[in-house]
Design a protein that fits this description.
By secondary structure, the protein is an alpha/beta fold. Helices cover about 40% and strands about 20% of the residues. It has one domain: HUPs (Rossmann fold, 3-Layer(aba) Sandwich), CATH 3.40.50.620. The longest helix is centred in the middle third of the chain and has 17 residues, at about 95-110.
Length: about 160
Amino acid sequence: MNNNLIAVYPGSFDPPTNGHIDIIARASVIFPKVVVAITHNHSKDHLFSLEERVEMMKESTSFLKNIKVDSFSGLLVNYLDKIGGFVVIRGLRALSDFEYEFQMALMNRTLNKKIETVFLMPGQEYTFLSSSMVKEIAILDGDFKKLVPLPVYKKLKNQQRI
């Protein structure tokens, strides 16, 4: 195995969920180094700042030793080129995710022919889980403690905007 191989798991992670952490943990077993690359998605209204999302992800993945949390802006292919990576990790929860993720993988490969996308499925208990659902449950004062890592739960509970 190439010990210099870097896999990148990009996303907005607003907020990180247990499903995200499950994918990161699975990737950490397969790849010697995994970079969780948090970006500002210009098409979304973020509940948490980029800095807050990076901090929550760092706290939530601290038990995994080959994980680095970073942030970037712009195209993923440019970020991959900058850090010397070519593997993209994407989670697939359901068939509905596949079409979008397939299009993104093909576009990334069109922009840079070296890029490979690896799709990982989360544990069955997380196939329904999304950041949007967690935010809605939190806003409506539902019980979301089992859906997110403890640092995220605390941050959401203390969030003044909810």
